[in-house]
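lol so apparently i was supposed to do this last week
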Amino acid sequence: MEKNIFNNKIQNMKNYIMFEIKAKQNELAPMLKAKNRAPIALSMGAPVEKVPDFVIKKTIEYLNIDSLHTYSTPKGETKFLEAVKDRMKRRFNVELNSKTEIFSLIGSKEGLANMIKALVNPNENEKDQDVILIPTPGYASYSQMIKASNARSYGVELKKEDDYQPDMNKVLEKYIKEGNDPKKIKALIINYPNNPLGCTCKFEYLQHCVDFCNKFGILLISDNAYSEMYFDENSKPHSALECKGAMDCCIEMYSFSKSYAMTGWRLGYAVGNPTAITMLSRQKSTVDTGIFKVLQYAGADLLTSEEGQKYIDEQNQKFKNKLIKFTAGLKSLGYKIDVPKTTFYLWLEIPKRFKDCVEFANEMLEKSGIVVVPGTAFDKNALRHVRLSVVAKDEDLDEIIRRMREDGFEFEK
Ligand SMILES: Cc1ncc(COP(=O)(O)O)c(C=O)c1O
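anyway here it is w/ pyridoxal-5'-phosphate bound
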């Protein structure tokens, strides 16, 4: 077959970095096992905890109901949509119309990609492409999804000196100064709590982003996949929909993947501006036919149950303990790292003797079987950082610190 029958952008793209890393990990596994360094993954943001017993019990119950085995719709079952409505009211005091302002998702990744597709007019010519502003560093998929839609991403730099909450008016000024056309901007993506930084933002900052998007008539896409992963009440994340004027410009994405350890279930939801929801619906109805009804029913019960909240609270305590212990281990090796306030991610500065984060990540894998992600996956300029997902079992985390000490990965040598 002629190679060039395929979409130019797709032909020139690489597979998503996490799958590439996983493939390399699998390829090296026999060699690593042979030298007592079986791979331990701190790469994907995928908790290894057991999912809530409650959701398993409910799934088994619903599997026995014949009517739940037929097609659903992309929008989702009424029971699921009502459960989301209830959850948004109880957790954030946000009132939603379940018919027009809520939509089911096959995980938030799919929702983000389809929202972007519904938003941009594809153009092969980079100069004329629609632009989406994305957090940098940020979730590695954003830039890929935008590129695959023949649009362009523009990085909004998250810097420590701004407490990772940049003034959007200054960002726009810089964007214009660099010769970019503000009329091309279609949306701003924000992600608090943030992957890979592990930080979150103040409520006032969400209002700032809502005001910015309303002023310029663009969509605010709030990726709230980590909304339930926080370690003290002062860092408890908000919904952007709590802000004044948010329903005029904002769509927000949620996921069951992280806080319920249900990454494989592919369950999430979008909430917010009814026009954005309608456009997402049109896009999704061309490419999917909704989520298995059994999963929606069980997920709905989980969202509204006491068991679900108890599970989240217990998981947060577990992750907090893991993070405290693991950062202490890294500190004992000389690394400068604090316990994050939200998420299970550590954004770790690498020792000076390594050329860059790719060399460090490769050596950690090839020498010690420790799988981490180079910072450049999240920000092309993040050459001196790697991301660690502290999702492994406690004994594996202890083993990592032991291997790093034995194999010469102290910060200073
Ligand atoms: C910031 C962020 N958004 C969205 C997702 C996608 O999660 P899912 O599709 O499992 O809901 C991830 C996964 O790692 C993420 O880190």
